[in-house]
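Let us work through a complete example step by step.
Step 1: write down the sequence.
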Amino acid sequence: MAKPIIGVTPLYDTEQGRLWMRPNYLHAIEESGGVPLVLPLSSDEEDIAALTKLCDGFLFTGGPDVHPALFNEETLRFCGSIDVQRDRFEILLLNQAVQADKPVLGICRGIQLMNVALGGSLYQDIPAQVSGLPVAHYQKPPYDVAVHGITIEKESPLYGILHKTKMLVNSMHHQAVKELAPPLLCGASSADGLAECLYMPGRRFFMGVQWHPEYLFEPDSDSEDLFRAFLSAAGK
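Step 2: predict the structure and record it as tokens.
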């Protein structure tokens, strides 16, 4: 049986005008039985349709902030760097992947982009806009160390994969899901009430996580189980 091809959204260096990729994402896909394919930042809908047909699943990676205009807000002073070209490409790609029911996994920016693309909104900066427990959402290196806990909903596909209601995760984000997109449900949350996992019911695999499982990936780990479930859905 052929290995599933996983389209990986690229990171873009706006200063030097070049695409790049963290090897952790590619390693996790390869070790889970897939072939990673780093995608171009195209704005051509026919090209994106061809990529949707070619790939068996898609990984939406971390990166800069989603432009607040996409969820009808003005850019606040504590919003970080944005990439309009990447926003446009990923929204077009996500919509086509949804229409084709291709398996999708979003990580960090990925979960935020998924929520915005489907009609939700974001906190532009957690410290400035979220009160309550000071959860360590933006940790300092090393990134392969878990820093805070999450609670997993038993009805969620994440629980179906990991068979647990509590786990520890790493965390490297200053934005977070605010208003949930209508097609999505929350599968896990942190102690301050922020969404750590979103999913779309009735799909082969459509899930976003706020942490970085690619940094925690190792044999017999929760991260390996998550990636293998994603690759298994893409291989069907």
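Step 3: interpret the result. DSSP finds seven helices and 13 strands in the chain.
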